[in-house]
Amino acid sequence: MISLSIIIVNWNTCELLKDCLASIRENLKSASEIEVIVVDNASADGSALMVQNDFPEVTLIANADNVGFVQANNQAARIARGRYLLLLNSDTKLLDGGALDVVDYLDSNPGVGIVTGRMLYEDRSFQSSYFRFPTIASGIIAHTFRRVFTFKQPFHRYFNYADLSPDETHEVDWACGAYLYLRRDVLDEGRVFNEALFMYYEDTLLCKRSWKLGLKVIYLPKAPIVHYHNKSAKQILAKAALYSFQSSVIYYEYTYGKKAVSFYRFIVHSMWRVFGAVFSLIPGKKFQDKSVFFRYLVREDR
Hints:
Blueprint: E1 4-10, H1 14-27, E2 34-41, H2 47-54, E3 59-63, H3 68-79, E4 84-88, E5 92-94, H4 99-108, E6 112-116, E7 119-120, E8 130-131, H5 136-142, H6 154-159, E9 170-171, E10 174-175, E11 179-183, H7 202-212, E12 216-219, E13 225-227, H8 237-256, H9 258-280, H10 285-300
Parallel strand pairs: 1-2, 1-4, 2-3, 6-12, 7-13
Antiparallel strand pairs: 4-11, 5-13, 6-11, 8-10, 9-12
Helix pairs in contact: 1-2, 5-9, 8-9, 8-10, 9-10
């Protein structure tokens, strides 16, 4: 019987994916109750062929088009046989066999719907994988000022649970989709994520659903992975910003309703227009690029 189905969605990260799969093979090679499913979103770097040749034990879904992170995860969930699912980014690497410990934890804690483990940067420093739920105000800042400035304020510490020790187990609002263990009870008619989303906020909405079902979201200080962070998204920075905002609209409508979302979109669009106009008046390529960026967001978000 399959206990855990590891689902990895890939887009043009062939070498990282290879390292990720190698780390699974190395650390979980004796675990016959684990299966690995890779969904390749029409990569142009030979990712699908690499999986076929180097990892024949992996189930591969090779999409002809890039269907997005959300739909690709749902594709894999439909064929997954595990009692639990592990959503794992292609830009990650397992450091030990702790995934089996998380399976044992879920078996022993039926009131838990979602678990994330210890996530590290490449230099092995701690990388937070858990956060408080966003608000309308934090969303406005994230999609306007944070697109210009990299400043950090006290509210960032609040939303990032800076007061929690990464060496202890905690209940958290939501956890990063780069590294999530799921109980099947959290799925919505067999789907992991809401397919109205293309990418971003899918993990936030998933955890919101888990809590509404009465199932906790837990951080465990075990089963460490390295996360190289946003390697796919960095290939499409402007589109990534657009997808992030559009997904936030869906999340806020689910959470706060249509009136609040109308206000949210109006404020963000207004600030995009102001930024686009102001930066166009400042000499220098950096500012002109910012102007083009914000004008792109206004034009494309219809």
